[in-house]
Amino acid sequence: MLEIKNISKSYPNFCLKDISFIVEKGDYFVLLGGSGTGKSILLEIIAGNTKATDGKIILNNKDISSEKIQKRNIAFVYQDQALFPHLTVFDNIAFSLRQKKINSSEIKKLVLKLSCTVDVENLLSRKPGTLSGGEAQRVALARALATSPECLLLDEPLSNVDTQLRFELRGLLRKINRQGQTIIHVTHDYEEAISLANKIAVIEHGSVVQTGTPEDIFLYPKSEFIANFIGIKNFYKGKLLPSENDSGLKTFKTSGVLIFVATEESKDDGFLLIPAENVVISNSFSENSSRNIFKGKINDIFPAKIGIEVVVDIGVKITSIVSKESAEKLALEKGKEIWISFKALSVKYIAA
Description:
Helices cover about 25% and strands about 35% of the residues.
């Protein structure tokens, strides 16, 4: 268990203020926030690269706040990987093992095992300059894991790779975590947080403003900043069911409600996001191109920053944002039965 207790760090124009949270063994803990909020500085302090002004870092009941980097048993993967350009992939992964004076046959065995874990076994003789961004990130992960760290720190690990590689690396990170590796991951990307985390801490202006599960954070934001930063109104946890026809559409089940979604994902557990502006309200059923059509009752209605926010109960609560003119034309009011519809293509599924 890693406990961060009242960590503060002062700079001329910025400070971390009284940061506290607990990361249990096996957690995938995401620090989520915008640029310049102090996420990366906090990782540097946990790793030992930067010294806190106040506070303590407790790892497995031992205060490591003053320990040297090499004695903390914490590994750090930087945003730019920081691989040794003059060493081969094999030698990069083996670097920390050689520092520990492990014999060469054991090093070879461990490097081969790690390279298979991150799928770079065919790259061991290459130099970092010949690798793609995704390949370099895999090598950096293997090098960090070679130390068998108690905790693996990741600073925006997916920010420099394209969409397909990001999808593949998320799968790899989930795999590493499920093998028992505790991970703290810094990101500004809420989809990344949803996909990977079992716990999230949201950081604003150097302070932790909310900590909890993805459902806690995204369904019950505790501040306007969090709500605006995340920007999600319709967020559901459930299961993705296989396609039963040739349409290619799959069905997502949440609290007994079935929602059509267009996705190539095959994993069953995950989260569904539906943009509120894509949820159309009407007074009667009408055939249209939307695959998702539900009858429901208006649970609440109130002014939003833009237009009118309408919360409808269809078995789960779903929010639509309409213009003031549309709300008046449809005579929307609390308790009224209406129809809602939204396209399968407007729904986003994120595997967990």
